[in-house]
Structures are given as C-alpha cells and as structure tokens.
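Weekly structure sync, notes
Attendees: PL (lead), two postdocs, one rotation student
Agenda item 3: pending single-chain targets
PL asked that the sequence for the first pending target be pasted directly into the notes so everyone works from the same version. It is reproduced below exactly as submitted, 159 residues in total.
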Amino acid sequence: MIAYIAIGSNLGDRIANVKKAVLRAADEVKATLVFMSSFYETEPWGIKEQPAFVNAVMGVETELPPAALLAHLKSVEAGMGRQETERWGPRVIDLDIIFYGGLVMDEKGLKIPHPAAHERAFVMVPLAEIAPDFIHPVIGKSAADIAKSLDSSGIRKME
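Predicted structure, written out during the meeting:
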C-alpha cells in the first residue's frame, strides 16, 4: 500500500530536519520511499507568529497497517526531539499520514484521509507534484485539481 505522509519543520535547520525525518521514517517503518516532493517554504498555519515552515510530501510503500504506521511516525518525531506543545505551534518535525491508498477510516486518534488535507496548500501542492492523478477518496477530485483550487500564495518551491 502506498501511504502519503506530510512532513514539516520550522525549528532549527528545517531542511536537514525534513531530510533526516524522511530517512528515519523510511527506515523505522521498513517502508520503501517511492515518491518525494520538492521542499516548499510555507507560511505558518494557525498561529502566524512563528518561523516559516519547510514542507514536503513523501509516498512510501508499506505493509504496516495505518495505526502501526502512525505509531512509528510518532516514534520518529520523538526521536528527533518533537515535543507536544500548543496546537499548530512551532515544531522540529511533524509527520502526518495524509492518505493511505484509498482507505477511509475514522478511529480515535487516526482519521484517514487527514480531515484537513484538502484545505491545505502546503500539503496538496507537494502531493500534486508527486501524485497529480491521486484521487481523494472522499472528495473524488485529483490532487492536482484540489491543489489548483487552493490559495498557494504563501508557498515557495525551494531550489
């Protein structure tokens, strides 16, 4: 199954944090990295008075069920120094399961697809780069179409 994972960092060396998270996540979850978007510098979501984020999306081939995948991603976050603070606050690293194939699930602590993914350009623009034809299993639109419908003025592709 291909899972799409959003990655973000706005503390410390943001690019190094994202790269490290990609390597650790692929290793920790025993997954194969299949797709990796470019890095994007993005304005903060929710709390505006904080540093800009570096965001990306990766697609990994995994046999882990969603709950186990999430547990491994939380372990990677903790290992990189992530501390649970205020919602939408600054963070060394953030790893979120956005999609898990075409699965739709709503369990305590885990909703797939991520309930706000389709509203966030910092998720959909990188996803559209690597999987433009991926169809959101609830909305029924492609990643590319969703990305085009969002305000992406606060996103800058990094070189």
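Discussion points:
- The helical segments are 14-28, 66-79, 121-130, 143-149.
- The chain has a mean pLDDT of 91.
Action: rotation student to compare against the earlier draft before next sync.
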